Amino acid sequence: MLIIHRPQTEPYFNIAAEEYALKHLTDDCFMLWRNEPSIIVGKHQNTLAEIDVDYVKNNNIKVVRRLSGGGAVFHDLGNLCFTFVQNKKAEHTDFKVFTQPILEVLQKLGIDARFEGRNDLTIDGKKFSGNAEAVWKNRVLHHGTLLFSSQITDLSQALTVHPDKFQDKAVKSVRSRVTNISEHLKNPLSLDAFTTMLEQHMHEKYPDAELSVFSDEDLQNIDRLAKEKYSQWSWNFGQSPNYKFNNRIKLAAGGNVEFCFDVNDGRISDLKIFGDYFNQKETSDIEKALIGVNHSRNAISGALSAFNLSEYFTHATQDEIVQGFF
Q1: Which one of 129, 133, 227, 267 is least enclosed by Cβ atoms within 10 Å?
Q2: Crossing angle, helix 95-108 and helix 191-205, to 10 degrees?
């Protein structure tokens, strides 16, 4: 087994590194890594239905879709992630096998951590780790989060959603009560020291394990994958299942506007705009212009920039109208 040291904290790179290890390495490997503030959504989720769009935009939080299923999670530098990639048949995988080393280290620290439910690790009934898996040919990727000293407030705000806006068949995240490992330590311990403990424990469990790093060629390939796939709207948002979207906004100058549309393959269709707003020109012009446009802030802003929106919604600003689509 390779124990790969990963100092990078860039989310696109880190999620790309997991796919690269799964599909291009042949050895079993174990990795510990961290992301700067970001939201990592499950492969089968509707991204926009999982995040607070305004909070994410205002706080420059990156949103990345991963290869595995399960729910959306918030990462920051107080959250330690772990990844196993092993040559193993999928039907033989067991979440408990991969999470056992984590529990053993916490037990050494005097923490009564447990595996509960389908894929969670808990302390006193509160979740500190969620786990998920992906399979490719004869290799299995298992990864999980370890909330050590995360900003819980940021976590809850970034993942605050408005379910009444979306109607879809995508997998929904289940929100749980969460806790940080650091809150249960009998003696203070830094995240770096905790990381070292985990690495040392893996050496004890796997005496043949070797410390390793990605080669220059590996890093170039991962960078390319991050740029071409994991940083792209088409993967992170466009891959969402089809859904219906409804939202109503109140204009600062008065009047309500309701936006109803379908999103298929990430693009707007069947858009209808309703409301008690005043207008000089027919909003059907805007409905037609937005058909086929990506359901993204940049794409919608670009399409609307061709219009003097105050003629279609009296005294409305472009920011107000764009907000109605999210």
Answers
A1: 227
A2: 120
- Can you give the pTM of this predicted structure? 0.80
Using the predicted structure, report yes or no on whether residue 120 has a pLDDT greater than 70: yes
The whole-angstrom separation of Cα 48 and Cα 158 is 11
Task: Examine the pLDDT at 309 and tell me if it is beyond 60.
Answer: yes
Give the CA-trace dihedral at 85, 86, 92, 93, to 10 degrees.
-20
Which residues are registered as beta bridge partners of 121? 115, 129
Taking only the tens place, the pLDDT of each residue in 262-293 is 999 899 999 999 998 888 899 999 999 999 99
CB count, 10 Å around CB of 252?
11
Q: Is 26 helix (H, G, I), strand (E, B) or coil?
A: coil
SS3 content of the chain, % helix, strand, coil (to 5): 35, 30, 40
Q: Are 250 and 315 in contact (CB under 8 A)?
A: no
Q: Report the pLDDT averaged over residues 291-312.
A: 94
Question: Rounded to whole angstroms, how far apart are CA atoms 100 and 98?
Answer: 6
pLDDT in tens, 57-86: 899 999 999 999 888 899 999 999 999 999
Strand partners, 62: 38
Is the Cβ–Cβ distance between 243 and 263 less than 8 Å?
A: yes
